[in-house]
């Protein structure tokens, strides 16, 4: 049976799931998935009932009553072509109870070799946007995202370039906080799981030049109410050389602050651990010339329970901000990390997502 090895915060996070009365299992078996198991059968469990299903929950959900209720699916990718390295981000989210800017998708590309960066933000009319319930079937002008937990296809078209890739998960799904539900801030529950390692190949076109790319992607699926009291957050995803997948949330609300990580091990077991607040070690701040928001570009990530100290830095170009319709923005930045993890030296690539103000 797989296990959850909890460190301090896990009890509170899991208690939140139990208090909400959820009893859905992500898989019918609590056995650790072996490396040869088909991806659709590899939803990692912790021995605690999960509240998300990485097969059915790729589909659209019926909206809750909250004005800020949202559905979101997102990939970040690290790919290579012709001796160059690229970071890719594709994201679509809907906030169906809004009357304006309710349906949206974004695409961004960073050439980590040259520093070239570009992004595209598309607002879509409700009648032009389709996301089926119960399955991953998204269609909108310029965007097609279809498939399931075993294989997915993403196509993007913009005035300056596009993407056409196939993605295949090569490991178990990650349920955030081990169950798939946690309080984002101030007691408001969110639902989230990831397919953290997806073999990716296909075509990237930028400024008329075609690249045959290969690499890996991390898919995140999230839904629920976005708390109005959420003032800022940082999210990071890290693939460790030993096969561990680490997802970090650092959130600040009006009443609570949380900094923690879900760690998925190759055998399907979890650690849910404290992380030292990221603002304590943030440095090398950059101010956006477009929105005038300030973001750090360096972090020292300390995870005491795992004897881990990691230096994370934005790569390629600090200007990887995506502007929003209200004139603000958020960072979706390709990054790299070095340091120690469980006492061993490590290095790798990841993404950092940041919202809100991060003054010095």
UniProtKB/TrEMBL annotation:
Superkingdom: Bacteria
Keyword annotations from UniProtKB, A to Z: Signal
All residue ranges annotated as the AttH domain in the record: 74-225
Keyword Nucleotide-binding: no
UniProt cross-references to InterPro entries, sorted A to Z: AttH-like_dom_sf (IPR023374), AttH_dom (IPR010791), Fungal_Dehydratase/Hydratase (IPR053112)
Residues annotated as signal peptide: 1-32
Membrane among keywords: no
PANTHER family with a match to the protein in the record: ATTH DOMAIN-CONTAINING PROTEIN-RELATED, TERPENE CYCLASE ASQC
Protein name per its UniProtKB record: Carotenoid 1,2-hydratase
């Amino acid at each position: 049976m797989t296990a959850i090895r909890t460190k301090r915060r896990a009890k509170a996070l899991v208690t939140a799931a139990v208090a909400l009365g959820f009893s859905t299992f992500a898989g019918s078996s609590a056995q650790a998935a072996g490396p040869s198991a088909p991806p659709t059968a590899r939803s990692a469990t912790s021995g605690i009932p999960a509240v998300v299903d990485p097969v059915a929950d790729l589909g659209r959900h019926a909206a809750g009553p909250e004005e800020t209720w949202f559905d979101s699916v997102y990939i970040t990718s690290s790919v290579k072509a012709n001796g160059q390295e690229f970071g890719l981000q594709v994201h679509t989210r809907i906030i169906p109870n809004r009357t304006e800017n309710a349906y949206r998708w974004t695409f961004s590309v960073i050439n980590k070799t040259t520093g070239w960066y570009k992004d595209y933000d598309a607002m879509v009319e409700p009648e032009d946007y389709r996301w089926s319930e119960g399955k991953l079937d998204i269609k909108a002008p310029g965007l097609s995202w279809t498939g399931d937990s075993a294989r997915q296809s993403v196509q993007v078209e913009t005035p300056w370039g596009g993407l056409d890739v196939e993605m295949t998960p090569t490991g178990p799904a990650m349920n955030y906080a081990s169950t798939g539900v946690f309080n984002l801030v101030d007691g408001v529950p969110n639902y989230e799981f990831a397919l953290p390692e997806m073999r990716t190949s296909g075509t990237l076109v930028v400024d008329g030049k075609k690249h045959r790319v290969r690499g890996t992607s991390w898919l995140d699926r999230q839904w629920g109410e976005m708390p109005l009291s959420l003032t800022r957050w940082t999210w990071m995803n890290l693939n460790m050389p030993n096969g561990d997948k680490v997802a970090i949330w650092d959130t600040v609300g009006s009443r609570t602050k949380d900094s923690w990580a879900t760690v998925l091990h190759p055998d399907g077991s979890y650690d849910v651990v404290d992380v030292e607040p990221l603002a304590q070690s943030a440095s090398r701040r950059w101010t956006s010339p477009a929105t005038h928001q300030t973001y750090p570009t360096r972090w020292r990530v300390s995870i005491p329970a795992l004897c881990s100290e990691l230096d994370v830095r934005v790569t390629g170009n600090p200007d990887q901000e995506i502007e929003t319709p209200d004139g603000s923005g958020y960072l979706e930045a390709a990054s790299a990390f070095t340091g120690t993890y469980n006492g061993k030296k490590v290095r790798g690539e990841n993404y950092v997502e940041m919202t809100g103000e991060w003054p010095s």
